[in-house]
Automatic annotation (TrEMBL), chain A:
<dbReference type="GO" id="GO:0046872">
    <property type="term" value="F:metal ion binding"/>
</dbReference>
<keyword id="KW-0411">Iron-sulfur</keyword>
<dbReference type="Pfam" id="PF13183">
    <property type="entry name" value="Fer4_8"/>
</dbReference>
<keyword id="KW-0004">4Fe-4S</keyword>
<dbReference type="GO" id="GO:0051539">
    <property type="term" value="F:4 iron, 4 sulfur cluster binding"/>
</dbReference>
<dbReference type="GO" id="GO:0016491">
    <property type="term" value="F:oxidoreductase activity"/>
</dbReference>
<keyword id="KW-0479">Metal-binding</keyword>
<feature type="compositionally biased region" description="Acidic residues">
    <location>
        <begin position="1"/>
        <end position="22"/>
    </location>
</feature>
<dbReference type="InterPro" id="IPR017753">
    <property type="entry name" value="G3P_DH_GlpC_su"/>
</dbReference>
<protein>
    <submittedName>
        <fullName>Anaerobic glycerol-3-phosphate dehydrogenase subunit C</fullName>
    </submittedName>
</protein>
<dbReference type="GO" id="GO:0009331">
    <property type="term" value="C:glycerol-3-phosphate dehydrogenase (FAD) complex"/>
</dbReference>
<dbReference type="GO" id="GO:0016020">
    <property type="term" value="C:membrane"/>
</dbReference>
<dbReference type="InterPro" id="IPR004017">
    <property type="entry name" value="Cys_rich_dom"/>
</dbReference>
<keyword id="KW-0408">Iron</keyword>
<keyword id="KW-0677">Repeat</keyword>
<dbReference type="InterPro" id="IPR017900">
    <property type="entry name" value="4Fe4S_Fe_S_CS"/>
</dbReference>
<feature type="region of interest" description="Disordered">
    <location>
        <begin position="1"/>
        <end position="28"/>
    </location>
</feature>
Length: 444, 247
């Protein structure tokens, strides 16, 4: 309506583009009508009175910052980037984009590059580098990373909490396994056989590029294997292109330059395949979130929109392309471990509208009873819960989920997100499965 | 009057509510004691609407008991706890009825080419996923809820592109008297007795589409104070009709 009130058609919106690369956040800030829904959905604000909440971090801070001498408030580093505010806002205010931009500016301008906090965050954000080194000698790394005195020193010098056990590194990474299974050629072979068995056109174009992310590669290759087996079962041939970190931990730590470097590699290798007709599939909901939403929101890289539009979460893809529910309702899971599952929907799955998916899919699956543990946040948010000063907040947020997990039948958990899985295990001692592993057990 | 435990002055309403929910330090009793000091036997005592998110009935009963008076809540500005409670109650009822909810915007639709909708296409961060159904209800709100979209060129209903009558000249959308008979709040889709939107020629837009709430035109909720009333009445009628169509 405001346009209509302007007296002439000469009206020009105020020019706020600082340069071509900076996203224009003004329309987002203007869309905020102060309903405070974001604030009541923020898990950090709920347990920490000193955190002013997303309404301030996003639209209000953006407006305050229009004044020359105002810098980004340090409370931005308390935001865990769970993005719940983003999906809660009824007015499409791009809150997480605003937080990511503000956080990057804060790290750039306010955080000393020689401070330990900066380097601690940088090391945590670049998990892939540590994981890569550790995977070269997984047994030693597993011992060293959880060696008491070393952990004490890490907490004292770097501020990495010693309350948590570092995740175990697999003795064989997913990519090593994939090569051993014959890589893309092996997959093509197996997919053709599956198509023949299914009575489909053997030459059908069913091709996907798998974005496994760091965690499925270095820590939980069983998730990657389940992904490969399930997709091949449906007649899809997979390729596993060169890839770097999705950037999720870097966004959350305000390291946008690091994230962009990695994003460029991913957009180039995944994007090429998309051009050739492949769909991009991720098994980690934070990775799919990054490729689909954060990349195009934050970076200007050739082919980024195309990749975003063709990226899917694994089960979401099969549900749309295949009769996944039908096959599952005719299947039986014999594995006793999967009989009772306490399911937690990761915040980033919620953001993609995928929070109900696993429960819906397993509703008619015999031998599996999956129970929702409520819509609270697990509290770990990637690297957040690893920081000594955030550990307590992280566990406070997680409390509601832990309680619900304890109340649920069975002692096995299920979630799509590797760091939520870490938190679930840490809080309850349960073993945690990925929905793909359940589908694998049902169909293969 | 101070709240027990002395929370910071700009504490969020949920902070008070959770303190009363948890009652870890006897907050309910302490709050009642604070009020009792100024309570002079009035039969009814009103509190700001912060009386719990999860256990409002228990909290109200505890306060009523302690004060020996009826206790009621006075709704406040956003965020509204009664609203949050209502949302939870709705979510629980849907869960019990076995309804799955997808919280992403509908951006497009599919038809059978014969005047019936077959699917609502939901956008998921770039993906477009059709959700199939026999019957559909459009309840996307008005100009605030984003069920109606406008720019200098015109006013539209963006999901199904239902007809929204409005003057061609945008200077006729409003009158200068702010509290006068404003045309724009009445913009919205035109429905028949069965709440089915009609096109510019009065024909049904889609056999199995109904509309409810602020997206329906013809009322000015602010001037008439009719917002929730229209929404509840049309929502009930549209939902019932859509439901009986699919039986
Ligand atoms: C500031 C203000 C104060 C008010 N105060 C009062 C009052 O005191 N009393 C009163 O009776 N009324 C009041 N009203 C009016 C009342 O709020 C509305 O009439 C009522 O909320 C309309 O309900 P609705 O369900 O039709 O739309 P909404 O409540 O607007 O809901 C529409 C929903 O649809 C969603 N949506 C929109 N587009 C899409 C899409 N493409 N796909 C999927 N979902 C979509 C939106 O996110 C939203 O959740 C007030 C309104 C405003 C703005
Ligand atoms: S991203 Fe999460 S933690 Fe950060 S402001 Fe939003 S809801 Fe709060
Ligand atoms: S939910 Fe959206 S519109 Fe509401 S206060 Fe937050 S940013 Fe503003």
């Amino acid at each position: 309506m405001s346009d209509a009130e302007s007296p002439s058609d000469e009206f020009e919106p105020i020019d706020v583009f600082e340069d071509e690369e900076t996203p224009d956040l003004r329309p987002g800030a203007d869309s905020c009508y102060k309903c405070s829904t974001c604030d009541t959905n923020c898990p950090v604000a709920e347990v920490d009175d000193d955190f002013p909440g997303p309404k301030f971090q996003g639209p209000e801070q953006w407006r305050l910052k229009r004044k020359e001498d105002t810098s980004v408030d340090s409370s931005i580093s308390k935001c865990s980037n769970c993005m719940r505010c983003d999906s809660a806002c009824p007015s499409d205010v791009p809150l997480s984009q605003m937080h990511n931009t503000a956080r990057a500016e804060y790290v750039d301008e306010e955080l000393s590059k020689t401070s330990l906090t900066y380097w601690r965050n940088r090391i945590l954000a670049n998990y892939r580098t540590s994981a890569f080194l550790a995977s070269k000698m997984p047994r030693i790394a597993n011992f060293a990373m959880n060696f008491g005195p070393a952990r004490w020193a890490m907490e004292k010098t770097l501020g990495v909490t010693s309350e948590r056990d570092f995740p175990a590194f697999a003795t064989e990474t997913f990519r090593e396994w994939w090569e051993r299974e014959g890589g893309a050629d092996g997959s093509r072979e197996r997919a053709r056989e599956a198509r023949e068995r299914r009575g489909e056109d053997v030459d059908a174009e069913k091709k996907v590029a798998y974005f496994h992310g760091c965690y499925a590669n270095y820590n939980t290759p069983e998730v990657g294997k389940a992904m490969v087996r399930v997709f091949e079962h449906f007649g899809y041939e997979l390729v596993v292109p060169e890839q770097r970190c999705s950037g999720t931990p870097m966004f959350a730590n305000g390291m946008l330059e690091d994230a962009e470097r990695h994003a460029k590699v991913n957009v180039s290798s995944m994007g090429d395949l998309v051009t050739q007709g492949y769909d991009a599939i991720a098994s980690c909901t934070s990775c799919s979130m990054a490729l689909r939403q954060e990349y195009p929101e934050l970076f200007d890289i050739d082919g980024i929109e195309d990749l975003a539009e063709n990226t899917w979460e694994a089960l979401e893809y099969l549900r749309v392309q295949e009769d996944l529910s039908g096959e599952l309702s005719a299947a039986v899971v014999e594995d006793e471990d999967l009989a009772e599952l306490a399911y937690h929907a990761p915040c980033h799955a919620r953001n993609q509208g995928l929070d109900g998916q696993a429960l819906e899919l397993f509703e008619d699956l015999a031998g599996v009873d999956a129970e929702d543990v409520g819509d609270s946040c697990s509290g770990i948010s990637g690297t957040y819960g690893w920081k000594e000063e955030k550990y307590e907040t992280s566990m406070k947020i997680g409390e509601e989920m832990f309680d619900h997990m304890e109340e649920a039948e069975g002692e096995v958990g299920m979630t799509e997100c590797p760091t939520c899985a870490m938190q679930m295990e840490h809080g309850t001692g349960y073993e945690i499965k990925h929905p793909l592993e359940v589908v694998e057990s049902a169909l293969i | 009057m101070a709240f027990p435990g002395d929370p910071r002055s700009d504490a969020k309403v949920t902070r008070y509510a959770h303190a009363l929910d948890g009652d870890a330090d006897g907050e309910r009793e302490r709050l009642a004691a604070h009020v009792a000091r100024v309570h002079e036997g009035e039969p009814r005592v009103g509190f700001p609407a912060v009386l719990g998110e999860d256990h409002p009935a228990e909290i109200r009963a505890a306060l009523a008991d302690a004060l020996d008076a009826d206790v009621f809540e006075v709704p406040m500005g956003p965020p509204s706890l009664p609203g949050i409670r209502l949302e939870y109650a709705y979510r629980d009822a849907l869960g019990e009825a076995g309804v799955h909810v997808v919280r992403r915007p509908v951006v497009d639709y599919e038809t059978d080419g014969d005047g019936r909708l077959t699917a609502a296409v939901v956008e998921r961060n770039g993906q477009h996923v059709p959700h199939y159904a026999d019957s559909f209800v459009l309840a996307t709100g008005g100009l605030v809820g984003k069920g109606l979209d406008s720019d200098r060129g015109g006013v539209r209903e963006p999901v199904f592109d239902c007809h929204v009558p409005h003057p061609a000249d945008r200077y006729d959308w409003f009158v200068d008297d702010v509290y006068g008979e404003q045309p724009y709040p009445r913009f919205g889709v035109v429905v028949d007795d069965d709440l089915r939107p009609r096109d510019a020629d009065g024909r049904i837009e889609f056999e199995n589409l109904r509309a409810a709430g602020s997206v329906v035109g013809g009322h000015d909720f602010a001037a008439e104070c009719s917002g929730t009333g229209v929404s509840l009445a049309t929502g009930d009628a549209a939902g019932t009709a859509a439901g009986s169509d699919t039986q």
